[in-house]
Amino acid sequence: MEYYVKSIFEKLYVSEASLSRFAKKCGYRGYREFVYQYEETFVEKQESMTGNTRMILDAYQELLNKTYSLVDEAQIARIGRYLNQSNRVFVCGRGSSGLTAKNRGIFEEFCDEIVLLPSLRHLNHGNVISPQFPILVMLDIIYSYYVEQDKFAKELLHDNTLRALGEGEHKRREVME
Q1: Higher per-residue pLDDT: 88 or 39
Q2: Domain residue ranges in the chain
Q3: Distance between CA atoms of 44 and 98, rounded to whole angstroms?
């Protein structure tokens, strides 16, 4: 990649002096040093990653990008409220997100909410990355909304649970001795 000053300033509609001042404000001696350092970091990333690493990271990035497009924050907030009001929650899943999206009407009869998850080709075979990754990302998003509602009570419940587990472990050790 070549970042000639003339082509860049023409595309950005700024002067050469503006590019130079920008580079200096970023801590470089000038535009050429800025471009050199940029190109070096780009080259290092390419050389340091093997094909497998790049393939895995690209797959994760693709799933995250698809998650951005599928997340409905209003729906997630509703699910958080449902979780706070419910004594029992059933979570069900079937097939890939494509199958679920096509047959959404079938599930609406039995479900309060249907959350679409991103999927990649062959993800369910586990031969590239874990097929649970999209589910975990969505669950983390839902959980963050759940915790934000009455955060103090949730923290107290969490602390009490840890304390009870610790006491149970202490009693178990006493019995074992």
Answers
A1: 88
A2: 5-48, 73-176
A3: 38
